[in-house]
Amino acid sequence: MLGAIIGDIAGSRFEFNGFKSTRFELFDPACDYTDDSICTVAIADAVLNKKSYQDSLLEWCRKYPNPMGSYGNRFSAWIKSENPQPYGSFGNGSAMRVSAIGWLFEDEVETLRQAALSAIPTHNHPEGIKGAQAVALAIFRSRNGADKSEIIKETEQKFGYNLQLTCDEIRPAYCYSETCQDTVPQAITAFLESKDFEDAVRLAVSLGGDADTLTAITGSIAEAFYKEIPSVISKKALEYLPKDMKSVINHFYRNI
Fold first, then answer.
1. Does residue 160 come out as left (phi exceeding 0), alpha (psi in the -120 to 50 range) or beta?
2. For the chain, which ranges sit under pLDDT 70?
3. Cα distance between residue 210 and residue 191, in whole Å
4. What CA–CA distance (Å, rounded) separates 195 from 199?
5. C-alpha dihedral over 34, 39, 45, 47, to 10 degrees?
6. How far lies 47's CA from each of 99, 103, 255, in Å?
């Protein structure tokens, strides 16, 4: 979970500028948490405290209505609605917020079911659901000892994503996209090519896409696979977060 939040914060200042290098300061005064962190906390809070995913998303997003980078237009309208309904989104928001589900359920079937349920309040398009499930399953498999070749095979077979390109092959033509189908495979590729957690974050940023979300997804999987995040990185990221978010994060780590 913290891997997603670190990725979000590190990528936040590059969200709209198509940065194409791994050489940058991981944290900068221009960084902050965005909607990715808020929604990640909301999904974790829902599982930990047995809330509905919709209620928890509405609660947290209404509490923090003006994050860095803002919410997407349709998601913002959903937050403000008196009767929020799914709106058929296949945006990458379903995938960036799902990380806690990959940790908090103990079998594949329930992990996939809960990932779908977490997406459906907003991202009920099949691609939106698929993106959330692919990320949750990669986290679930990683924390349970799968190697990268197993993750590649399962992700390609179950979800139809192409994971055969390298970051160097993706980078030149890749540009900003808010869709699951143009974010999730690229984020997984950055994880697969990485040698450690920090390298995964840097590779994801370097692709030059929707940097905070892309890197949140990559970071969430990398945390599960590499088993730990350097303490200096974790401590610095937590400095950006308000107390109530840190409280949910602490609760999460007491339960995994």
1. left
2. none
3. 16
4. 6
5. -150
6. 11, 11, 11
d(CA 202, CA 93): 20
Distance CA 217, CA 18 (A): 17
| DSSP type of residue 27 | S
pLDDT score of 222: 98
CA distances in angstroms from 118 to 45, 64, 126, 203, 243, listed in the order given: 12, 19, 13, 27, 24
Beta partners for residue 34, in sequence order? 68
Alpha carbon 24 to its chain centroid, in Å, reads 21
| Interatomic CA distance for residues 46 and 127, integer angstroms | 23
Which of 146, 71, 78 shows the shortest CA–CA distance to 111?
Answer: 146
Yes or no: say if 115 and 107 are a contact pair by the CB < 8 Å rule. no
Residue 55 buriedness (CB in 10 A; 0-12 / 13-18 / 19+): middle
Residues 6+ positions from 98 with CB-CB distance below 8 Å: 43, 115, 118, 119, 132, 135, 136, 220
How confident is the model over 12-45, as pLDDT tens digits? 999 988 899 999 999 999 999 999 999 999 999 9
Cα(217)–Cα(214) distance, integer angstroms: 5
Q: What is the pLDDT of residue 71?
A: 97
2: nearest Cα among 219, 169, 226, 196: 219
pLDDT of 18 reads 87
Residues 6+ apart with CB under 8 A from 162: 156, 185
pLDDT, averaged across the chain: 97
